[in-house]
Write a structure and sequence with these properties.
Layout (H helix, E strand, L loop, with lengths): L10 H19 L23 H6 L4 H6 L1 H13 L4 H12 L5 H16 L11 H10 L9 H21 L1 H14 L7
Length: 192
């Protein structure tokens, strides 16, 4: 939520505003339209990629299982977009990618980029973390290490796990994915 004039906004903010505007435009045109669960699945030819009922059911077992599955991650991300809270997952994924950087020069610049996009006050994709965590993260940026986002990332994980994940499991998206997987596998779908 950038509050400065458009001329002083970082380009990432302007891009996010345009993206949000496009999303809202679609919702305004089709207020009852939900997302299409089939599009959550990675784009592979239908005959080569089938959603496995066992995998979909495994997503209920733990948040870890959900995010460790490519299809689960895509489905959860689609769900978060409908709630306008996908910045939490984007931040978590950015931190995971950040930990894989091997260049010290890139580490510092990427850390600053992540901070500006997700942590600083009024960031375009600001995640919901407490003031103390923001301050700690900002202090750790002075000497960017692979661990500088660990506390903020962990708090975002807990927020998603305790808040968004249970809603995802109750969502029509998840129920629909169970049905798709059940039909693809030829098994009878039973509601538990």
């Amino acid at each position: 939520m950038c509050k400065d004039s458009l001329t002083t906004l970082p380009s990432i903010c302007i891009e996010r505003v345009k993206e949000l505007g496009a999303r809202l435009g679609v919702l305004l045109q089709k207020p009852d339209a939900a997302f299409e669960p089939e599009k959550c699945i990675q784009s592979k030819p239908r005959n080569k990629h089938r959603l496995c009922l066992e995998d979909v059911l495994r997503w209920r077992d733990s948040f870890d299982n959900l995010l460790s599955s490519k299809d689960g991650l895509a489905a959860f991300w689609s769900f978060l977009k409908t709630e306008f809270s996908d910045e939490n997952l984007e931040f978590w994924l950015a931190c995971e990618k950040y930990k894989k950087i091997r260049s010290a020069a890139k580490l510092s610049s990427k850390a600053q980029e992540i901070y500006e996009q997700f942590i600083q006050n009024e960031a375009c994709r600001e995640v919901n973390i407490d003031h103390h965590t923001k301050e700690l993260t900002q202090r750790q940026l002075a000497h960017a290490t692979y661990n500088c986002f660990n506390v903020a990332q962990a708090k975002t994980w807990v927020l998603m796990e305790k808040d968004s994940y249970p809603r995802f499991l109750k969502s029509t998206l998840y129920q629909h994915l169970q049905n798709i997987a059940s039909h693809q596998g030829g098994a009878q779908y039973s509601h538990t």
